[in-house]
Structures are given as C-alpha cells and as structure tokens.
Amino acid sequence: MNNSDDVNQSITGENNTQIYSGNDTITAIGECSMAAGRDIIIQSGINPKKYAELLVQKKLLEEQLIKLNEEKNKNRRKEFAGVAINLAEKMRLSAHIDFSPRKLNQLGNAAQLSGSLDIAEGYYNQALRKSRNDGDRRQEADSINNLASVKTLKGELEKAEEMYHQNLIFYKEIEHQQGESGTLNNLGNIAYYRGEFNKAECLYRESLTIERDLGLQSHEANTLNNLGDVERVKNNLDRAESYYYQSLAIKKEIGNQAGEATSMSNLGLIAATRDKFDEAERIFEDSLALRILIGDKSGQAWDYRNLGSSAAQRNDIDRAARLFEKSLRLFKEVGNRRGEMHALRDLGDIENKRSNVEEAQRLIEESLSIQKEIKYGYEDELL
Predict the structure, then answer these.
(1) E strands, the chain, where?
(2) β-strand 97-99 against 40-42: which pairing, if any?
(3) Residues 348 and 224 both lie in one domain
(4) Which pLDDT value is given to residue 75?
(5) What is the DSSP track for 300-342?
C-alpha cells in the first residue's frame, strides 16, 4: 500500500495505518500539546530544584512536539520525535510526572515515528490502562487502534485484526465516523497483506465513502492509492491508473509532497508493467528527487528498488545490482524489514542471472528468513 507519510505504500512503500492522537492521525501529533496543564502533571511535594527542572523539561517536551507537528521534512520530524521521547523517558523516570492518556498516545506516536516500536507499544499500553481506569472510552479506543498499528508493523496480523474489529464496533456505537473510516482502512490493509484483495477492496470502498462525506481529503487520497494498489495487483491497469491520478491530484492540491511522490511512483509501476520503461524510469527519478528533497529515506529506497527492477527488465544487470544495493542499505538504515526482504530477494535474482548460485541462495534464504519473521503474507510472491 502506498503512503510514505504515516504508517500506505504498495510495492513502493508502507501501508497507511491510521494512528490516533486524540481525534487526529499522527500527522497532527503536536496539535493537542497546548493543553499541557491537563496532559502533563508534576506531582506536588517535591523539592523546588527538582520541580524547576521538571518544568523546564515539560516546556522542552511540548516545544519538540509542536516542532514535530509543524515540520514537513521527514528526517527532521524523526529527529524531533527522538528528542521528545528522550525527554519524556527522562521525565518519567523521575517518578514525579503523570502523563494523561492523550499525552501517552502522542508520545507513543512519536516513538513509532522514530522507529522505536517497543517503546511506542509501552506508551500505548499505559494509555490504555489509564483510559480504562478513567472510564474514557474514546481514549481507550484510540489506544487500542495505536496498539494495533504496532502489532501490524510487527507482523502480528491476527492480534491487530482483532483489535481493529473491537474498535470498529465501538466507533459505530458512538458514531465517530473518522475513527470508523480509519479502522476500515486498517482492516483493508491487513486483508491486502494477506492477499485477500476482494475483501481489501470492499473495506477500502467503505472507508472512502465516509472520508468523502466528511471531507477528509488527505485520508481520501490515501484510500484512492490503496484501491489503485488492489486494481494493479489484479492487473486492471487502467482502473489502477485512474485511482493513482485521482490521489495525485488531491495530494498536489493539499501540498502533501510525500503522498505526491508515492502516487507518482505508483504511476511509474503502471508504466513499467506496460513495458514503457523510459516513461517509468522518468517517473521514478522524479519521485526519487522529491523524496530526497523532503528527506523520505524509506520512499527513496522503494524508488531505487523500482529503478533497479526497470534496469533488470532491460537486462542491465550491473546497474540493477547497484540500485538494489542502494535500496537495501536504505531499508536497513530506516529499519524497514519488509523492504529489506524484497531487496534481498532482488539481489538474489541478480546473482542467479550472473550464475553465482551460492550467493543467490544465501540472499534468498536471508529474504525468506525475514519473510517468516514478519509473517509477510505474499508467500507466492517470494517462494
């Protein structure tokens, strides 16, 4: 699936899992931070020096979350997220700080953005316990959704699916349509990962209807990309292309450069499937340039992979190998195990073409090991 902006790329990227911070997705991670008086409570009865130190840390944490919310460059956002988590962990260890469930969800989102899934899961679990103790069903649901997003990234699809279904019932009960649409999309992503494309399409269409009713353009663009991915996998290229162009138009309109690059890259895949390799490579290069500009390393890795695939189809084996190696290095750098799995298999195929059978076998076995580790669903694609 295709959105590199917040945990949906197809073969070119990550699925767009909706992550909640209050009412908002991770793209609005800092918007609730102005309510700091309610969200971060410094306990009374501590010495003035410690109290002053915690006040300074509290202010710095809020500033980092606001910067994170306002920053467009993905590398800078990741930096701000990392600083925020370091501050929060230092404050939490003082034993004199109490974070609200909403703030814990925000910190979990920041940890997830920085690539620290275990830390994110810890914050989400704390948020879940506190929201249940407080009787705050809305924050409880957001915490469950966020936990499910971590489970999805870890490959624990059955557990994630169970959580999303639990929340879908709740969101319908309280008529929280944005939560409902995001959860439907997440369930569609899980179906897609498993290769259940008809089921995924139905879930995406349900989500799209709600998003259009609510005017959620960013979410609508992501879902259109998801529908394009389904049609492309089914080899309905004209329909896939139509969805990608619709998504691209919205992302340009709202200034979502990461999403724009994703839609462009998907259009490049359509051109490559039609054997229009010059057109495909031009599109991939344009997408790559945009992703370099905004600091999207995961997206760059997918574009290098796409360019490598195009070179391989032209039988330019040495160039393909160089591009796949760049892709693999970036996937490892950002901790994208699914991308790493694909890049290793790509390099294994190259070594097969070079008749380096032992090296090809080693690379493919490493790819399959990751596939098993993350419980990736497309066994027929790799085996």
Answers:
(1) 40-42, 97-99
(2) antiparallel
(3) no
(4) 74
(5) HHHHHHHHHHHHHHTT-HHHHHHHHHHHHHHHHHHT-HHHHHH
Residues 226 and 375 placed together within one structural domain of the fold: no
| Closest residue by Cα to residue 383 from 364, 363, 357, 360 | 364
Number of H helices, E strands in the chain: 18, 2
**What CA–CA distance (Å, rounded) separates 170 from 166?**
7
Q: How far is CA 181 from the centre of its chain?
A: 17
Residues 122-153 have pLDDT tens digits of 999 999 999 999 998 888 998 999 999 998 88
Which residue range forms the structural domain that includes residue 339? 315-383
Please determine, for residue 15, whether its predicted confidence score (pLDDT) is greater than 50: no
CB 347 within 8 A of CB 362: no
pTM value is 0.78
Nearest CA-CA partner of 1 in 157, 179, 210, 232:
232
Question: Letter for the amino acid at 142?
Answer: D
Residue whose token pair is 């750098």: 333
- The total of structural domains in the chain comes to 2
Residue 356 Rama label (left phi>0; alpha psi -120 to 50; beta): beta
- pLDDT of res. 98: 77
Residues 212 and 322 placed together within one structural domain of the fold: no
3-state helix, strand, coil in the chain (%, to 5): 80, 5, 20
